[in-house]
Design a protein that fits this description.
The protein is of the alpha/beta class. The protein has a single domain, classed as Aldolase class I (TIM Barrel), CATH 3.20.20. Helix content is 29%, strand content 16%. It is built from eleven helices and 14 strands. The strands form four sheets. Strands 3-4-5-10-11-12-13-14 form an eight-stranded parallel barrel, surrounded by four helices. Strands 1-2 form a two-stranded antiparallel sheet. Strand 12 (264-268), helix 8 (284-288) and strand 13 (296-299) form a beta-alpha-beta unit. Residues 27-30, 61-62, 104, 179, 181-182, 231, 268, 299-302, 321-324, 349 line the site of flavin mononucleotide.
Length: 364
């Protein structure tokens, strides 16, 4: 069938209990608009997400599962009663427009700073400085050597994720995405560049993936696996160095997640040139698709045409769009009518307020 007849991105998909109206997913994006002290979602966030409710699925910005998981200003949480109440406004507004919305569960681990914890150290699998910068309440600062979580504390963090998922359901979310990407805590456990532990959470690939698997099992047990997505970034080099054998690591992890009834697996393509790195997979979706039985979502750098191609080729079932959704609340409609897109204003991505947040125009 000619592309002008039916665009693959615009066809519906049955995903567990959900009927997705199309395959255009809004990617998770931190926008730093929450109330800072309590990390509580505010009214303009309900407006922002409901403006984008025509997406087949919305995945919210990363939301901390505990006060210990924070690494940025004005990012929302999902651990307090007030946060649950704040999120209810968001889910209600999206559902009123017929949308489906998952909350992204997040713990930054070592990508943080003592300024967030009254001088206490951020936590991580091992005391290794990520050698990056953190946006603290007192400005941009160099990261520090984090404190190693005890074995008992690792189990506490697993419970924080489970509680976060339960809270998300109470707040009206349809499901959750476990944030295992972009150099944050779960990826820190997965990769031997950040994990030097000697307990059951370190060493072999099986041990390094235990933290992720316990989270997925715990969260799935609490809210149903078909309401749980997992995000991984096998080609990521941001916030964290590669694993000594990134390819083998992710083949094993994705193999373990395959066929276990998850809502979806969400893979990021490379965001930077990784061609010179040993054992790095350059074409993520193509390499890992055969290893995962279930719904596969791909992301990073797609537009309407490449998104349609990746679906029609069978390599992915869903495509998540990040930046295009920031500046085009009506992205689905624009795809449908092949309309030009608004250009994004980078300077307002992480800035508070309504500018560059809820004021992008829909097409006439
Ligand atoms: C402003 C901004 C905030 C982001 N925040 C998150 C986040 O909270 N969680 C996450 O997993 N990825 C985050 N990302 C990554 C996006 O989900 C996505 O992977 C990235 O934008 C690439 O997709 P694109 O090329 O369609 O924009 C963020 C990206 C941007 C631009």
């Amino acid at each position: 069938m000619a592309e002008s007849d039916v665009q693959p991105l615009l066809t519906p998909l049955e995903m567990g209990p959900f009927h997705l109206r199309n395959r255009v997913v809004m990617a998770p994006m931190t926008r730093n608009r929450a109330e800072n002290e309590g990390k509580i979602p505010v009214e303009i966030m309900a407006t922002y997400y409901s403006q984008r409710a025509s997406a087949g699925l919305i995945i919210t910005e990363g939301s901390q599962v505990s006060p210990q998981g924070v690494g940025y200003m004005n990012t929302p949480g999902i651990h307090s009663k007030e946060q649950v109440e704040g999120w209810k406004r968001v889910t209600k507004a999206v559902h009123e427009r017929g949308g489906t919305i998952f909350l992204q569960l997040w713990h930054v681990g070592r990508v943080s700073h003592p300024d967030f914890y009254g001088g206490d150290l951020p936590v991580a699998p091992s005391p290794i400085n990520p050698e990056t910068e953190a946006y603290t309440p007192l400005g941009l600062k160099k990261t520090v050597v984090p404190r190693e979580l005890s074995t008992a504390e690792v189990r506490d963090v697993v419970r924080d994720f489970v509680r976060g998922a339960q809270n998300a359901r109470e707040a009206g979310f349809d499901g959750v995405e476990v944030h295992g990407a972009n150099g944050y805590l779960i990826e820190q456990f997965l990769r031997d560049s950040a994990n030097h532990r000697t307990d059951e959470y370190g060493g072999s690939i099986e041990n390094r993936s235990r933290f992720l698997m316990e989270i997925v099992d715990g969260v799935g047990g609490a809210i149903g696996r078909n309401r749980v997505g997992v995000r991984l970034s096998p080609a990521n080099t941001w916030n964290i160095p590669p694993d000594s054998d990134t390819k083998r690591l992710y083949e094993a992890v994705i193999g373990r997640l395959s066929g276990t009834g998850l809502a979806y697996l969400h893979l990021r393509e490379k965001a930077a040139d990784v061609s010179g790195i040993p054992n790095m997979v350059v074409n993520v979706t193509e390499h890992f698709r055969p290893l995962f039985k279930g719904i596969l979502m791909t992301n990073t750098g797609f537009d309407r045409e490449s998104g349609n191609r990746v679906i029609s080729s069978g390599l992915a079932d869903l495509v998540a769009f990040g930046v295009p959704f920031i500046s085009n609340p009506d992205l689905v409609e624009r795809f449908k009518r092949k309309l030009p897109l608004n250009a994004p204003d980078q300077s307002t991505f992480y800035m508070g307020g309504v500018k560059g947040y809820i004021d992008y125009p829909t097409h006439a």
